[in-house]
């Protein structure tokens, strides 16, 4: 189910001693550079893909802890890339980012198990909160699985 992250919550940092890998699939080089600094400052290990095809390949190669996926990607649209990613990593927390807000996007995000949807321009704190929330949800699911 998609969660629309409200603004104004505190910035959450990664756990001390562990740098979760965050794959950012974003076609704008300047935004990738900004996000590199934001994620490194928050103790995450950023990995980048410039288009949808590269994003799917990077999920297979790097097994990231969280995927931040722009909907408007080159070569392969973000939602189509996410369809493929779900076949590879069904429980990977995904944060969708988009400059277009629409009910169709919200329904697709819910259907594809997206953790959060952020509309561009978004605040860095909102992105960090969404990433931390996705990690917490994933870690909670792992803990629940291990109790069986």
CATH superfamily: Response regulator
Terminal Cα span = 24 Å
Helical segment count: 5
The CATH first-level class comes to: Alpha Beta
| Side-by-side strand order of the widest sheet | 2-1-3-4-5
CATH topology: Rossmann fold
Strand content: 15-25%
Summarize the helix and strand pattern as letters: EHEHEHEHEH
Structural class: alpha/beta
Number of domains: 1
Q: Based on DSSP secondary structure assignment, what is the total number of beta strands?
A: 5
Helix content: 40-55%
Any low-confidence stretches, pLDDT <50, length ≥5?
1-15
Largest sheet: 5 strands, parallel
Q: Write down the overall mean pLDDT.
A: 87
Shape: globular
Rg over CA atoms, rounded to whole Å, is 14 Å
Q: Please give the CATH architecture.
A: 3-Layer(aba) Sandwich
Structure notes:
The model is unreliable at 1-15 (pLDDT under 50). This protein has one domain (21-146): Response regulator (Rossmann fold, 3-Layer(aba) Sandwich). The protein has helices at residues 29-41, 52-62, 78-88, 103-111, 124-146, and strands at 21-25, 45-49, 66-70, 94-98, 116-119. The chain contains five helices and five strands; from the N terminus they run βαβαβαβαβα. α2 runs parallel beside α3. With 148 residues, it is an alpha/beta fold. The chain has a five-stranded parallel β-sheet with strand order 2-1-3-4-5, sandwiched between helices. The longest helix is centred in the C-terminal third of the chain and has 23 residues, at 124-146.
